[in-house]
Design brief:
Layout: E1 2-6, H1 7-18, E2 32-38, E3 41-47, E4 51-58, E5 67-70, E6 72-77, H2 78-87, E7 92-97, E8 102-107, E9 110-117, E10 133-137, H3 138-148, E11 163-169, E12 172-178, E13 182-189, E14 198-203, H4 204-213, E15 220-225, E16 229-234, E17 237-242, E18 261-266, H5 267-281, E19 289-294, E20 299-306, E21 310-316, E22 320-323, E23 326-330, H6 332-340, E24 346-351, E25 358-362, E26 369-373
Antiparallel strand pairs: 1-5, 1-7, 2-3, 2-6, 3-4, 4-17, 6-9, 7-8, 8-9, 10-15, 11-12, 11-14, 12-13, 13-26, 15-16, 16-17, 18-22, 18-24, 19-20, 19-23, 20-21, 24-25, 25-26
InterPro entries: DNA_clamp_sf, DNA_polIII_beta, DNA_polIII_beta_C, DNA_polIII_beta_cen, DNA_polIII_beta_N
Domain DNA polymerase III beta sliding clamp N-terminal: 1-126
Subunit structure: Forms a ring-shaped head-to-tail homodimer around DNA.
Length: 379
């Protein structure tokens, strides 16, 4: 095998594929990057058994400066190969596989020789039927991931909660995540009608990596499913992830239908106030911020204290405030994550009681995006 390519173009694709390669794996060959050179171009593959990423660098793209002198395949230790490529001196690089699996990497006056492995020993990627597929714009899908993945659990004791629950039916695409202390739910209507239906749980870690790969060019993302795998197609890149097995809890019953007290804020203003209050709450053992609402006086106060440091109290200026008096405590980190997901929106916070979960929704769309937070008992 022998090919020459523009180094910057190669590094860009190498970085994407390397997201799926782990140095800690029970299958030694998966610490490597698989490279296949053919008339179509270079196919790069990385996998860690949970996620796999495959991308094609096309031979017919003049910007990539790719010329394939000899087709073939090799697996190279990703860590060494990646570091070498990033430090080569010239704009172009040449990779040549010689006797056995000896691989030479040259650029200008620099020449590295490293040992490769037989590409035939690399595990095959799953085959996924394209019958059930969904297409979303990259920007919409990236936003959807950002708004829901914040609420996935980090506790492996309940593996099912470490994923985001995706359901598609009647052209409505629903994403829900909860760690049992908070919940995030987003629903969108597909722009083009689809007969596809599915109910799957995708690991939050997979979605975080996928989100980092979705560019700002608003190109479409296509989702396809098999029994235990999901495939995302982003242009010439394929992103595979395993699905989590089991039944996701019924989260719809957690969302309160009634409210005894409601308040509206500009999300950035409330976020800034919670951030100020959390400066001291983080110094106390229980990390709690208290909110006091007095609708009759149109008054909202945020309070936090640390026995070792001191306390902070701030009067807030709500846009609207209705209902009964209320005093409620919550984890400020959960609140900050929720508020950041709303961007510059005006939000409505709805409370039922001091010990019941409360919801946050954007005022311009109160049914398709909900964040829910469970308060903290402080007595």
């Amino acid at each position: 095998m022998k090919f020459t390519i523009n180094r910057a173009a190669f590094v860009k694709e190498l970085n994407n594929v390397s997201r799926a390669i782990s140095s800690k794996t029970t299958i030694p060959i998966l610490t490597g990057l698989k490279i296949v050179a053919s008339d179509a171009g270079l196919l790069l593959t990385g996998s860690n058994a949970d996620i796999s990423i495959e991308t094609l660098i096309r031979a017919d793209d003049p910007d990539l400066g790719l010329s394939i002198d000899e087709p073939g395949a090799i697996v190279l230790t990703a860590r060494f190969f990646s570091e070498i490529v990033k430090r080569l001196p010239e704009k172009e690089m040449t990779v040549t596989v010689k006797d056995g699996f000896q691989t030479e990497i040259t650029s200008g006056a620099a020449a590295f020789n490293i040992n490769g492995q037989d590409a035939n020993n690399y595990p095959h990627l799953p085959e996924i039927d394209a019958a059930d597929s969904v297409v979303l714009s990259g920007a919409v899908f990236k936003e959807l991931i950002g708004q829901t993945v914040i609420a996935v659990s980090n506790q492996e004791s309940r593996p099912i909660l470490t994923g985001v629950h995706f359901v598609l039916s009647n052209n409505q695409f629903l994403a829900v995540a909860t760690d049992s202390h908070r919940l995030s739910q987003r629903q969108i209507e597909l722009p083009t009608p689809s007969d596809a239906t599915f109910d799957v749980i995708i690991p939050g870690k997979s979605l975080t990596e996928l989100s980092r790969m979705i560019g700002d060019d608003d190109a479409d993302v296509k989702m396809q499913f098999s029994e235990n795998q999901v495939l995302f197609l982003l242009g010439d890149t394929s992103f595979y992830s395993r699905l989590l097995e089991g039944n996701y809890p019924d989260t719809s019953r957690l969302i309160p239908k009634e409210a005894s007290t409601t308040v509206e804020f500009e999300a950035p203003e409330l976020l800034a106030a919670v951030e100020r209050a959390s400066l001291l709450s983080h110094e106390s053992r229980n990390n709690v911020v208290k909110l006091t609402l007095t609708p009759a006086e149109n008054q909202v106060t945020i309070f936090s204290n640390s026995p070792d440091v001191g306390n902070v109290e701030e009067d807030l200026a709500p846009k609207e405030l209705d209902g009964e008096d209320l005093e409620i405590s919550f984890n400020p980190d959960y609140m900050k994550d929720a508020l950041r997901s709303f961007g510059q929106s005006t939000i409505r916070v709805a409370f039922t009681s001091a010990l019941r979960p409360f919801t946050l929704v954007p005022t311009e769309d109160t049914s398709n995006f909900i964040q829910l937070i469970t308060p903290v008992r402080t007595f």
